[in-house]
Design a protein that fits this description.
Length: about 300
């Protein structure tokens, strides 16, 4: 697909909505209205936008605890998202799960977990079910480079390759697992070569929204046709700390901000009525925040409802 046919209006809308949502969270967070730790996605918007626009509404999405961008890009219930952050009863999980456990089954967005790499074997299991049922849907599994330090990642891609499952692993490589750099965690940081040794088709993709969309679209088509697992690596960086609203100590001055603002400005340059879109986004955010603030907290007698424990 040429850039002329790419929907820049939609790409700009999704990208800017993610960015402004995260910025509004940083503004509100010090007030303690948000009752959940937050892992922000500022700096990683292109990946969520490009991959979501390339996927089908029938595809199944597995994210992680840094899932705001994925959730918004794939069209999750936005008001319920804010209510969950506020701990309100009409949130995604009745206000009990918070930012790290987003999910919306109406759009096939599986609920996330705070445990690193935990969604990966779940995604593989879902892909196995898709193959057994002979369905054409593909599982998209977002994860960071830190998840690749876990043994379950390698067990999962081995199984996916062995069974030739319809799954796309999307590695958002910001080079850090909290504060540990990739080179201090891996003998050789040759991610693509390592993954290929397990039999997966693997490719490193340039980090810009259009390229991510174009390459992901092609790969998803191949997966649907042949039910073969694929892996993509996209180098990225995040402006904010591992958790919370402060700037990341790992970033050089203005590093991530300059990279991602350049992409946002490029998308904006392709949209004639970007001010109209900006106004729409601000209105949607304001309405969602008002909705969350006016909503009620769960009642005390509901504290154990829909909560599982094996103790």
């Amino acid at each position: 697909m040429s850039k002329e046919k790419f929907n820049f209006v939609e790409a700009y809308y999704r990208y800017k909505k993610i960015r402004r949502t995260e910025e509004r969270i940083t503004e509100i967070y010090p007030t303690d209205k948000i009752k959940s730790p937050v892992h922000l996605s500022i700096g990683q918007e292109s990946i969520a936008v490009g991959c979501s626009m390339a996927s089908s509404k029938k595809d199944i999405i597995f994210s992680n605890y840094r899932g705001h961008a994925h959730f918004i890009a794939h069209g999750g219930d936005y008001k319920a998202f804010w209510s969950e952050l506020y701990g309100k009863s009409n949130g995604l999980s009745s206000g009990k799960a918070g930012s790290m456990h987003l999910g919306d089954l109406n759009i096939n967005f599986m609920f996330t977990s705070a445990i690193v790499a935990s969604s990966i074997p779940n995604a593989v299991g879902y892909a196995l079910a898709q193959k057994i049922k002979n369905l054409s849907n593909v599982v998209l599994c977002y994860h960071g480079d830190g998840a690749m330090d876990e043994g379950v990642f390698w067990e999962s891609i081995n199984f996916a390759s062995l069974k030739q499952l319809p799954i796309l692993f999307i590695c958002e490589n910001n080079e850090y697992a909290i504060y540990s750099h990739l080179k201090k965690r891996m003998y050789q940081a040759n991610i693509i070569e390592r993954v290929r040794s397990f039999g997966l088709k693997a490719k490193k993709i340039k980090n810009d929204t259009f390229t991510i969309f174009e390459e992901t679209k092609k790969i998803l088509k191949k997966i649907r046709m042949n039910s073969t697992p694929h892996f993509i690596e996209i180098s990225t960086s995040r402006l904010k700390d591992h958790v919370g609203i402060k700037n990341s100590p790992n970033m050089k001055k203005n590093d991530s901000r300059l990279i991602e603002d350049k992409e946002l400005l490029f998308l904006r340059s392709k949209v004639k009525d970007f001010k109209k879109i900006d106004k729409k986004i601000e209105s949607e955010i304001d309405k969602a925040i008002r909705y969350a603030e006016k909503s009620k907290y769960p009642k005390q007698n509901e504290i154990l409802s829909n909560v599982f424990s094996n103790l």
